[in-house]
Automatic annotation (TrEMBL), chain A:
Alphabetized InterPro entries for the sequence: AccD/PCCB, AcCoA_carboxyl_beta, Acetyl_CoA_COase_Trfase_b_su, ClpP/crotonase-like_dom_sf, COA_CT_C, COA_CT_N
Name this polypeptide is given: Propionyl-CoA carboxylase beta chain, mitochondrial
Pfam families to which the protein is assigned, alphabetical: Carboxyl_trans
Lineage of producing organism: Eukaryota, Sar, Stramenopiles, Ochrophyta, Bacillariophyta
Secretion signal, residue range per the UniProt entry: none
Reactions mediated catalytically: butanoyl-CoA + hydrogencarbonate + ATP = (2S)-ethylmalonyl-CoA + ADP + phosphate + H(+); propanoyl-CoA + hydrogencarbonate + ATP = (S)-methylmalonyl-CoA + ADP + phosphate + H(+)
Occurrences of domain CoA carboxyltransferase C-terminal (ranges): 317-563
Single GO term (MF): acetyl-CoA carboxylase activity
A GO-annotated cellular component: acetyl-CoA carboxylase complex
Native source organism of the sequence: Seminavis robusta
TM segment ranges: none
SUBUNIT field: The holoenzyme is a dodecamer composed of 6 PCCA/alpha subunits and 6 PCCB/beta subunits. Acetyl-CoA carboxylase is a heterohexamer composed of biotin carboxyl carrier protein, biotin carboxylase and 2 subunits each of ACCase subunit alpha and ACCase plastid-coded subunit beta (accD).
Top-rank taxon, per record: Eukaryota
Automatic annotation (TrEMBL), chain B:
One GO MF term: ATP binding
Positions of transmembrane segments: none
Domain Biotin carboxylation per the UniProt entry, residue ranges: 40-512
Protein name, as recorded: propionyl-CoA carboxylase
Length: 563, 753
């Protein structure tokens, strides 16, 4: 608490600025005087008495601090506000529990002297980034927040050092890192030093990967090399209208390919949440995005230490019957329904935090809770593409499965899949390679895996979706579920060739054998056929039992997932 | 043939009595003897779907030795509650695909199923085959009991034209009009010359507002004629149309009857119920019904009851039926009434009559059908069956009151009904009764009538009943489809409704631009703000505030109206944060008492799973629905029928939120979206046409209703995006418009050359 008071956090830079105390020209120029006039002391007067020296240092320190709090100055702060954004410090303020943020490296400054960087106007304590740790929902979280008001949030060697420091500290204590990105890119004046800084950050990202959750929130521009640090974190979120991400911007695109495209169309929130799959969700503004981060963090463990898995008490009974799910899923295998309705009926309090809701809607990935414990839900969603697995769905789900596995979050899978999406687009795009990612991820995952087949599981997709054969811990099917190589009619056409008069009868025969879960139950491919309304009770029970699940690690350097 | 059984003649009795054949107690007058086939219960097939099936089953299960239901359903209804909860010994029978014409209207299949299930009786419910005289005749001839009036009565009264003739013969006052079927639109125009506008065009075989159009001028009439005809054809397979004077600003008042032929006198015994006022209507379909009416003078009531009685006797009516009147009540003038039609079936709104009289109409129909005459509780020497209290019913539909009441389909989730207190104690002095055909997770399909439930409230007097129904609706959680519960809520709390000024034009008069959602007064908004703050602080999860710190509650989300709420132990203060000087006087700080509502220390009762919070404000319990939560922590809240996103922030968050920009809204000026899911039947324009504001563009058919889509502005049709006959989703763009180009200017140089 004392630390928090010392950095005057609770008042905020803008408030201080408005009070007039800290922005008077005198105070600023004095700060600069102390910063740049050490040599003059020598020639001027003999030794001063120590208490006056200490007092003047105190004054200089205070001035440095107040300068740090003001970032790029009031004018730029106002500009940031005008474009609908908050400043780096305001964002930090909204992310953390009030009064808990502990800033690091507030006084750290860049060391560049080239291209006018040694000028008075280019000196900014903190070097355009606020770093530190604090509490979110009462748990320790590390964060950095790039300050666009300081030299456009550009990344210098020292700026990067500050980022790396929090990432390393977060790993040491086992706490998540959140990066609030708002940077124009490399600090060109520093040349290759800046590039080196980026690479140091990348390395730190990779070192932390799978050890602590890493989350990036893109709250302004994020272009060129800067995109790759967020890209290596676990989740990327964006803010509508103010954020964009691309490797090369519209000007370069125009020069090289003659294509005219806006920033928004090239790398805005719409592109990355629904087309490229780079970002995991978007929010209307900074305030909303930061609130969402607090909510997401409540689902996540602090690190890959199993004991940090969160628990949120609930009065939602574990044995609550869910009769609605049987009504929500139509009998006709060709009638679509929204699997999210089914999920919300089953999980605690109907509450989910969806990851990539706008991307590959044929599969749902979401965090939820069962009996207060976080689970990762993966579910085919027949409302889009009949719930087929395609390239986008496979990569989306595979990454989610791997995140959950890395952080000991049990996997709950709901299956209603007619197979892989056919077509040359898919084959040329490498559905074999991408589909394999999901298969690989599920096979590799050794967290508790519970699975319910709601309506159908055809073909290879049956195998992929957390089947018993991939060491599923608990696999169930509802009584109406079909588990087969393919639909009855297609199967009969292959078995008996072309069309015949008795194709109907043969189809019925095939359907009788496979258009129900009996065959799988007899072979133990599913542990039981359960009534839909018992689904929550069964899953809660299994997850409770599986909390002590242990699987030996296979000795190897690492597996070789088909990337 | 039918053997005798003994049963206690009490509607509250639900336990199965030891009903031995020919066991007859002479000591108790409440025991009666009944004949059933072979001493086994009558099998009552309900040739219908949804809530009415469960309604009829409820009565049957009260007399398990006498009746059991046979349930039939289409494939689309396989998972519906009325099928899942079927209690008879015969399993529910699937009688065909979703389309009603192939299932619920498929007479052959139903006849076959009657045979196959050994059903002794058929209850047709309402709609579907309920007023199909041929069907009634066919099954009667097959020796099956038709639980409805004799086929001849169905035929005579079901045909609007014929019923008017019969009514005139019986001395009943009727609406002026043309006494016959219209041959052509020209004839219609001719008739209007006599009776004058406005006129009502309606299907001769119709009911329920289908195929009915009001016309104010020749153009209306020409346009409506074809549409009414084709609607009549598609809904009733009978395109005959009638025309009559349209009574302006009438009340719709009707009388429930239950008639039985007296075995000794062979006369028709007519039981007349107190009137029902069913004036709150949209698209000529009832939405709110109550009994008795506050409008009717004792004089009118007596006259009407006498005519009702006479009409029933003249027709030789048996079983349940309803005689509808239009009542004109000019201020200070004399009340006049006109016979409208007779519905030869059990009506949707029968529960309010049951409530005020404390009887079971379905039981009456079953008894009459079984040949046992009127049950004892219907015996009276009074002109009207004795009644007490006031009952009011709201029909809750899956439809969009913000878009002209177009049907809305989809899964209901979450869906939670108010608690039905009637089932536990049907004789309670005050209760909520839910006659519902759906449940959480039920999927509303486009194949059938979109009614979800009837929510009924019974109390000692009208104000209590109205308030009770409104409070019940506050607790009614319906998500997944658009619905009219909020509109009903707004009507119930409307001062004119409370005063009883409810002509059939009520909705058009008080919601002239359609329903735009409930607008709360500042005082109610303040209550909402405090209530939501209490829920939030009770959950204590989303905000970063500490106890005692003020919360900024923003109704409408981040860019809505802000209230500063400070919660204390026993009181809260609330202050509206005004944004303009004109508003400043509203910015006063108000103190709200949070004292307990009978439970010690409990001011909030909330479980997220139940989506409903009960909050005590100023010593009164209030219901607040918290239905969904966005990733950003924004709540979707409903109170007093008003529904909106609500964001709760700390003061600092609120201060910083002032820098945020409002999201950019999509420009819809150049597109014409489909207001509902349906089929594009035809286009009235072509690409390149110049259209005026309000001009007809195309017809979209949904649930057999043809809806004219009109242009919302002047422009040129750039593209017709949906093929004729193709289905469209709600909001799918049908037509693209472009601004009109000024051709004259472009042409000018050419002309000059």
């Amino acid at each position: 608490m004392m630390m928090a008071n010392r950095v005057l956090f609770s008042k905020g830079a803008a408030t201080l600025a408005r009070s007039g105390i800290l922005t008077s020209k005198g105070a600023l120029s004095q700060a600069l005087y102390y910063h740049t006039s050490l040599p003059r002391h020598k020639s001027a007067q003999p030794a001063v008495d120590p208490s006056s020296l200490k007092a003047s240092f105190r004054e200089r320190l205070d001035n440095e601090r107040s300068k740090a709090l003001l970032g790029g100055g009031q004018k730029r702060i106002d500009k940031q506000h005008t474009r609908g954004s908050l400043t780096a410090r305001e964002r930090i303020e909204l992310l953390f529990d009030p009064g808990t943020f502990h800033e690091l490296d507030q006084l750290k400054a860049h060391r560049c002297v080239d291209f006018g960087m040694d000028g008075e106007s280019k000196q900014f304590p903190g070097d355009g980034i606020v770093t530190g740790h604090g509490l979110v929902n009462g748990k320790v979280v590390y964060a950095f927040s790039q300050d666009f008001t300081v030299l456009g949030g550009s990344l210098s060697e020292t700026h990067a050092e500050k980022m790396v420091k929090v990432m390393e500290m977060a790993q040491r204590v086992g706490a998540p890192v959140i990066g609030l990105n708002d940077s124009g890119g490399a600090r060109i004046q520093e040349g290759v030093m800046s590039l080196g800084g980026y690479a140091d950050v990348f390395q730190a990202n990779v070192d932390a990967s799978g050890v602590i959750p890493q989350i990036s929130v893109i709250m302004g521009p994020c272009a060129g090399g800067a995109v790759y640090s967020p890209a290596m974190t676990d989740f990327i979120f964006m803010v509508e209208q103010t954020s964009y991400m691309f490797v090369t911007g519209p000007e370069v695109v125009k020069t090289v390919t003659d294509e005219v495209i806006t920033k928004e169309d090239l790398g805005g929130t719409g592109v990355h949440t629904s087309k490229s799959g780079v970002a995991h969700d978007k929010f209307p503004n900074d305030v909303a995005a930061l609130r969402a981060m607090r909510r997401l963090l409540a689902f996540l463990p602090s690190s890959n230490d199993k004991t940090t898995l969160p628990y949120k008490p609930t009065d939602d009974p574990a044995d609550r019957p869910v009769p609605a799910v049987a009504r929500l899923v139509p009998d006709d295998p060709n009638t679509p329904y929204d699997m999210k309705d089914v999920i919300k009926e089953i999980v605690d309090d109907g509450e989910i935090f969806e990851i990539q809701p706008d991307m590959a809607k044929n599969i749902v990935t979401a965090f939820a809770r069962m009996e207060g414990h976080t689970v990762g839900v993966i579910a085919n969603n027949p409302i889009s593409l009949a719930g087929c697995l395609d390239i986008s769905a496979s990569t989306k789900a595979a990454r989610f499965v791997r995140f959950c596995d890395a952080f000991n979050i049990p996997l709950v899978t709901f299956v209603d899949v007619p197979g892989f999406l056919p077509g040359s687009n898919q084959e040329f795009g490498g559905i074999i390679r991408h589909g394999a990612k999901l298969l690989f991820a599920y096979s590799e995952a050794n967290v508790p895996k519970v699975t319910v087949i709601t309506r159908k599981a055809y073909g290879g997709a049956y195998d992929v979706m957390s089947s018993k054969h991939l060491r599923g811990d608990a696999n169930y099917a509802w009584p109406g579920a079909e588990l087969a190589v393919m639909g009855a009619k297609g199967a009969v056409e292959i078995l008996y060739g072309g069309s015949g008069a008795d194709i109907e009868a043969k189809s019925a025969e095939y359907a009788d054998q496979f258009a129900n879960p009996m065959e799988c139950a007899r072979r133990g491919f599913i542990d039981d056929v359960i009534e839909p309304e018992d689904t929550r009770k069964m899953l809660c029970n299994d997850l409770r039992v599986l909390r002590t699940k242990k699987m030996p690690d296979i000795i190897r350097k690492h597996s070789n997932i088909p990337l | 043939m039918w053997q005798r059984q003994v049963i206690r003649n009490s509607r509250s009795l639900q336990t199965r009595l030891a009903a031995k054949a020919r066991c007859f107690s002479s000591t108790s007058s409440t025991l009666q003897q009944f004949d059933t086939p072979d001493g086994k219960p009558f099998r009552v097939m309900v040739a219908n779907r949804g809530e009415i099936v469960q309604r009829i089953q409820r009565t049957c299960t009260q007399y398990p030795d006498l009746f059991e239901t046979v349930v039939v359903h289409s494939t689309a209804d396989a998972m519906a509650p009325f099928v899942a909860e079927a209690s008879g010994s015969v399993k529910p029978v699937c009688i065909g695909p979703a389309a009603a014409s192939q299932s619920y209207l498929n007479v052959d299949k139903i006849l076959q199923t009657i045979e196959q299930t050994g059903s002794h009786m058929v209850h047709p419910g309402y709609g579907f085959l309920s007023e199909n005289a041929d069907f009634a005749k066919t099954i009667t001839n097959a020796g099956v009991v038709w639980l409805g009036p004799p086929p001849h009565a169905v035929q005579e009264m079901g045909d609007k034209l014929r019923s008017k003739e019969v009514a005139v013969d019986a001395g009943v006052t009727v609406v002026p009009g043309y006494e016959g079927v219209l041959e052509s639109v020209d004839q219609a125009l001719e008739v209007v010359k006599d009776i004058g506008y406005p006129v009502l065009l309606k299907a001769a075989a119709g009911g329920g507002g289908k195929g009915m159009r009001i016309c104010h001028n020749d153009q209306d009439l020409k346009e409506a004629y074809g549409m009414a005809k084709s609607e009549a054809k598609s809904f009733f397979s009978d395109d005959r149309l009638l025309i009559e004077k349209y009574i302006v600003n009438p009340h719709h008042i009707e009388f429930q009857v239950l008639c039985s032929r007296n075995p000794t006198t062979n006369e028709i015994d007519v039981v007349v119920f107190p009137e029902r006022e069913c004036s709150i209507q949209r698209r000529n379909q009832k939405v709110i019904e109550e009994s008795p009416s506050v409008l009717l003078t004792e004089e009118s009531r007596q006259k009407m009851v006498a005519q009702v009685r006479q009409l029933c006797k003249t027709v030789g009516y048996e079983s349940a039926g309803t005689i509808e009147f239009l009542v004109e009540a000019p201020p200070g003038g004399e009340q006049s009434f006109y016979f409208l039609e007779m519905n030869t079936r059990l009506q949707v709104e029968h529960p309010i009559s049951e409530a005020v009289c404390g009887v079971d109409l379905v039981k009456g129909m079953l008894w009459i059908g079984a040949g046992w005459g009127l049950p004892e509780e219907f015996h009276t020497n009074e002109p009207i069956l004795p009644y007490k209290g006031h009952a009011i019913e709201a029909r809750i539909y899956a439809e969009d009151p913000l878009r002209g009441f177009l049907p809305s389909t989809g899964p209901l989730r979450p869906y939670v009904e108010p608690v039905d207190t009637f089932k536990a104690n049907p004789t309670a002095p005050e209760y909520t009764r839910m006659d519902s055909g759906v449940a959480n997770g039920h999927v509303v399909t486009p194949f059938y009538d979109p009614m979800l439930s009837k929510t009924i409230y019974y109390a000692a007097d009208r104000p209590t009943a109205v308030e009770g129904l409104a409070t019940a609706l506050d607790q009614y959680i319906i998500e997944g489809v658009q619905h009219n519960a909020r509109l009903v809520n707004a009507v119930l709390r409307h001062p004119e409704f409370m005063a009883g000024n409810t002509p059939t034009s009520f909705l058009e008069t008080h919601f002239p631009d359609g329903f735009q959602g409930v607008q709360l007064s500042l005082a109610k908004e303040e209550e909402m703000a405090v209530g939501v703050a209490m829920i939030e602080s009770f959950k204590n999860e989303l905000t970063m505030s500490k106890p005692g710190e003020p919360l900024m509650v923003q109704l409408g989300g981040m860019f809505g109206k802000a209230f500063k709420v400070t919660l204390g132990e026993e009181t809260a203060t609330v202050q509206y944060i005004t944004k303009t000087p004109e508003e400043e006087e509203n910015g006063a700080v108000r103190t709200v008492s949070l004292s307990q509502m009978g439970k010690e220390g409990a001011t909030v009762d909330y479980q997220p799973r139940k989506y409903l919070a009960e909050v005590s404000l100023d010593n009164t319990p209030r219901f607040i629905q918290v239905v969904s939560k966005e990733a950003t922590g924004e709540l979707n809240v409903q109170m007093y029928g008003a529904n909106m996103p609500v964001l709760i922030e700390t003061e600092r968050e609120y201060e910083l939120s002032s820098h945020m920009h409002e999201p950019v809204k999509q420009d819809t000026t150049d597109i014409v979206p489909s207001p509902m899911p349906g089929t594009v039947m035809s286009y009235a324009v072509q690409e390149g046409d110049l259209v005026e504001d309000g001009q007809e563009l195309c017809i979209v058919e949904a649930m057999k209703m043809q809806n004219i889509i009109r242009s919302h502005r002047k422009g040129v049709v750039e593209a017709l995006l949906v093929k004729t006959g193709s289905s469209v989703a709600a909001d799918e763009v049908i037509i693209k418009l472009v601004p009109e180009t000024d051709d004259e200017e472009d042409d000018a140089p050419a002309k000059a050359a």
